[in-house]
Design brief:
single chain, Rossmann fold, 7-stranded parallel beta sheet, binds nicotinamide-adenine-dinucleotide, NAD(P)-bd_dom_sf
Length: about 450
């Protein structure tokens, strides 16, 4: 696999000289994940299971896109199993397909995928909306099945779900794009998660197009682009064909210039907490903004008992208040493109909470709230707004975490390793593309199914 783990010595040793010992002692055995440098898709067949009409439609779609497809269990090696449970009406309807998936697991190759397809459970509907409890139980059952299976996957394999709203065709454009994302190396560090397709919006994209330049000709703004995850986002968006404008504080000016030169982008030295940041960015870009990535973020950890106003206010100021102002500023400046997308960085700390991070968790939970609440506005504009919640990612920031906490952070995920900045960037490029417009207001965890809040 092309990308090794630059900071993770254990994963290197467990795949090298200590491989046998690790196996003998039953220690975590993280597998190097396949990433885009290894190619977008594997070459083995895809097994499509389930009795629904959508299963037939997707089997044909895969064939049309050059995949080798099987419709019945086989002893051949497989790159993926697709399980269609979208017509399950009572919990008993799950058993046939679930057990068939189980029978196919031993045939899966390294870094394989299981993808379930289902309808939205309706558990988030207003309490006054009557839904059939047995139907809701069946649909919600798919969630539990997928999440548990993700914990059981081996050798770098993942399990995720595509969930489609009632009234939206199972093969809506964004459901198909979600399939390409989950099948491909772009989702290396996404496991135990669900992509919820709420509308029929979204541009059609073939599997091959998805592996290519999904953002060709688009203009993207990335905040905090000088280093870490932001620099990887800039590089990935540029690889996908976007013109990138990187924003970072003047103190990071040299690093920003270097990053932007490397990706053929343009640098803007600006503190995003500047009240005029929105209009400054609009003026710098000088044209429509198709994608805004709210990546700049800081931590100032302290137990709440020891928290001071400086730490609290600076974290909330950069991580959420500046984002709210920036979005409003770009709207005011009339800077959005025809189908604008926003992707903001949340964190699993914003979902599960984390000791010593009340300020950070408040800001990141705020990002999730802001994202859900902005969905209607961006749907009206023909675009989308989503968030990505990284787990433990190997960056300069996490390199400074004390060694034992760092080891724990890596190994408590189902993939038993930290993710790379590129993994977060791939999810952002996907959610920021026109193909994913039908996914709106959601937060996608990129965490290798970290146990924190899972
Ligand atoms: P990092 O500290 O390496 O990079 C953050 C960048 O943002 C820096 O270049 C910094 O100069 C810039 N920045 C900070 N304040 C700014 C401001 N006011 N205006 C403009 N730029 C500013 O951090 P990272 O690890 O790359 O994290 C990037 C994002 O991902 C953050 O929002 C972080 O909260 C989130 N995140 C990271 C992890 C992880 O494991 N590293 C996990 C969850 C979430």
């Amino acid at each position: 696999m092309a990308d090794s783990h630059p900071h993770d010595r254990y994963t290197e040793l467990a795949n090298g000289p200590l491989k046998l010992l690790v196996k003998k002692l039953g220690l975590p055995a993280p597998v190097p994940l396949r990433r885009m440098a290894d190619g977008a898709y594997l070459s083995e067949p895809v097994l499509v299971l389930g009795p629904s009409a959508a299963a037939d439609a997707y089997a044909q779609l895969l064939l049309d896109n050059g995949f080798d497809v099987r419709r019945t269990p086989t002893s051949e090696k497989l790159q993926a199993v697709l399980a269609f449970l979208d017509e399950a009406a009572v919990p008993g309807d799950l058993s046939g397909t679930a057990l068939e998936v189980g029978g196919a697991l031993r045939s899966l190759t390294r870094c394989s995928r299981v993808i379930t397809f289902s309808r939205m459970p309706g558990t988030t509907a207003h309490p006054s909306t009557e839904i059939d409890p047995a139907l809701a139980a069946a649909r919600n059952g798919v969630t539990g099945l997928t999440r548990s299976l993700a914990h059981e996957m081996r050798a770098g394999g993942t399990a995720n779900g595509i969930v489609v709203a009632d009234g939206v065709p199972m093969d809506a454009p964004s459901a198909r794009a979600a399939l390409w994302f989950l099948l491909s190396s772009k989702s290396a560090y996404v496991s135990g998660q669900f992509l919820e397709v709420g509308t029929e919006a979204g541009a059609d994209v073939t599997a091959q197009e998805f592996a290519g330049r999904t953002l060709a000709g688009r203009t993207a703004v990335v905040t905090g682009a000088a280093r870490g995850i932001g620099a990887a986002i800039a590089a990935t968006l540029a690889r996908e064909g976007a013109h990138v404008h990187g924003v970072d504080v003047p103190q990071a000016g040299d690093a920003l210039a270097k990053t932007m030169n490397a990706v053929g982008g343009r640098a803007l030295q600006l503190d995003i907490t500047d009240p005029e940041a929105g209009s400054a960015i609009a003026a710098h870009v000088g044209g429509p903004v198709d994608l805004l990535v709210n990546n700049a973020g800081i931590t100032r950890d302290r137990m709440l008992a020891n928290m001071d106003a400086g730490r609290w206010d600076s974290v909330l100021g950069v991580n959420i208040e500046a984002q709210l102002r920036l979005g409003a500023g770009l709207t005011e400046a009339g800077a959005w493109g025809m189908t604008p997308h926003v992707v903001s960085l949340a964190s699993i700390s914003g979902i599960a909470g984390n000791r010593g991070q009340t300020n950070y968790s408040a800001s990141k939970a705020g990002v999730i709230g802001m994202t859900a609440a902005s969905a209607a506005q961006f749907a009206r504009l023909g675009g989308s707004v989503n968030a990505v919640a990284p787990g433990f990612i190997e960056t300069e920031m996490t390199k400074k975490v004390p060694v034992l906490t760092r080891e724990l952070g890596r190994r408590i995920s189902s993939l038993q390793q930290g993710g790379l900045p590129q993994d977060v960037a791939e999810a952002i490029a996907f959610l920021g593309s026109d193909a994913a417009t039908g996914i709106n207001g959601s937060t996608l965890r990129v965490c290798g199914q970290n146990m924190m809040g899972a």
